[in-house]
Design goal:
The complex is a heterodimer.
Chain A (H helix, E strand, L loop, with lengths): L3 E2 L20 E2 L9 E5 L9 H5 L5 E4 L2 E4 L9 H5 L5 E5 L2
Parallel strand pairs in A: 1-2
Antiparallel strand pairs in A: 3-6, 4-5
Chain B lengths: L23 H13 L3 E5 L3 H6 E2 L2 E2 L4 E4 L5 H14 L6 E7 H6 L2 H10 L4 E6 L39 H6 L5 E6 L3 H13 L4 E6 L3 H4 L6 H10 L6 E4 L2 E4 L9 H6 L9 H21 L2
Parallel strand pairs in B: 1-4, 1-5, 5-6, 6-8, 7-8
Antiparallel strand pairs in B: 2-3, 7-9, 9-10
Chain lengths: 96, 295
């Protein structure tokens, strides 16, 4: 479970809740546009050490069965995952 | 079982935030919240993590989180803990995430007061060695020689003139139940310390070094590497303070080259060989102290 993108985006004053609090984990914008390069996983080389998942500052790498995958909506393309990957299963490729 | 990449909770509680790519501070916050779980109540003062986490309506914390006054992280933690306790709630962790300026300069008296009262809180300082959120101004945790906008490097003065404040030992000198240092380059060590702090009653303090690619002048993918290197070259150390004793958790067999660590960062680019000699000597002096007083 993690915070996820919502459809409803408050735009006017009446959309804002009366209380001093607002729901935790309410995401309305992606970070995908920040990226010049994107990490691409070669799952045949992946040994499942999960270091990329652990060291990702944005937490966008996740387990999917025995494979790992990336949430490209929120990846900023910093490249830490590619550098930490010992078997070299993550390559950084230019965004088109 | 020891907590590691395979056993840590898969729940993400700090997600979709607007921190710069490769931010060390956001990595520290993310990992600490994963260890503490969604019953953690986070308090964040003015600083990078509150600026990138609460851009209404984009709310990136999956747990309860609140922004405090700059100086009042620890006092708000005291209030959060007392308020929840008064309501009969016991299953929670009051945790604060403040930067180096919010801890060592502006929030120091509130932190000192909370330790004095021994409130049941966990205070995590993510140390990126300057006021990064406002555009890289010197804090008292900025190391000697570092160039910031308030300690520029020119013909007469070469960056920061003063050494880094020894906050870990200042906190330990209060007789705190638990204090530790960590680095985002050694996350297994950090996770173990947060897990340990979770079980301890009373005030806990963890000081984690979190490189800032923007302020340090390194590439975004070098954050973790440089956080490892600073420990390996002896300019930072992983230690704990408990029951009145200091323990060293990681002893590099042989220090790596200090000048290699400094030269790769643009904030240290102007340093001369004499400056690096001063830094190396102060490191050796520090380790002499560690070898004498730490177990």
């Amino acid at each position: 479970m993690k915070p996820f993108l919502r459809d409803f985006v408050p735009t006017s004053y009446k959309d804002i809740p009366d209380a001093t609090a607002y729901e935790a984990g309410y995401l309305v914008t992606k970070n995908a546009g920040w990226r010049n390069i994107r990490p691409v996983i070669d799952n045949t080389k992946c040994v499942g050490c999960l270091n990329c998942y652990l060291y990702c500052p944005d937490g966008v790498i996740f387990r999917e069965g025995s494979k790992i995958n990336i949430d490209y909506d929120f990846c900023k393309g910093c490249g830490i995952c590619s550098k930490i990957c010992k078997p070299g299963a993550i390559k950084m490729e230019a965004e088109k | 079982m020891a907590i590691n990449a395979k056993t840590i909770s898969e729940t993400e509680l700090f997600y979709g935030h607007k921190a710069c790519a490769g931010c060390g501070g956001s990595l520290a916050v993310r990992i600490a919240l994963k260890v503490l779980g969604e019953n953690a109540v986070a308090v964040l003062p003015a600083g990078c993590m509150s600026a990138v986490g609460f851009n209404f309506p984009q709310l990136c914390f999956g747990n309860n989180a609140i922004i405090s006054t700059f100086a009042g992280t620890a006092s708000m933690l005291t209030g959060v803990e007392a308020g929840l306790r008064a309501q009969g709630i016991t299953d929670f962790h009051a945790v604060g995430f403040a930067g180096d300026g919010g801890t060592a300069d502006i929030g120091l008296q509130a932190l000192s007061g909370a330790i004095d009262r021994n409130d049941d809180i966990l205070y995590i300082c993510y140390d990126n060695e300057a006021y990064m959120n406002t555009g890289i101004q010197k804090s008292s945790l900025t190391p000697f020689g570092a160039r910031t906008t308030t300690t520029p490097a020119g013909k007469n003065i070469r960056g920061n003139l003063r050494p880094k404040k020894n906050l870990f030992e200042i906190v330990a000198a209060h007789g705190i139940p638990y204090a530790a240092t960590a680095s985002v380059g050694y996350l297994n060590d950090f996770m173990r310390k947060v897990e340990k702090a979770k079980q301890i009653k009373g005030t806990k303090y963890i000081h984690i070094l979190a490189p800032c690619p923007t302020g340090w002048g390194v590439k975004t993918d070098e954050t973790v590497e440089i956080a490892k290197e600073v420990v390996d070259c002896g300019l930072w150390y992983l230690a704990e303070y408990e029951n009145g004793d200091f323990t060293l958790n990681h002893r590099p067999k042989e220090f790596s080259d200090v000048s290699a660590y400094l030269r790769r960062q643009s904030r240290f680019k102007h340093l001369t060989d004499v400056d690096i000699e001063i830094i190396t000597r102060s490191r050796d002096k520090k380790w002499e102290f560690i070898n004498q007083n730490f177990k």
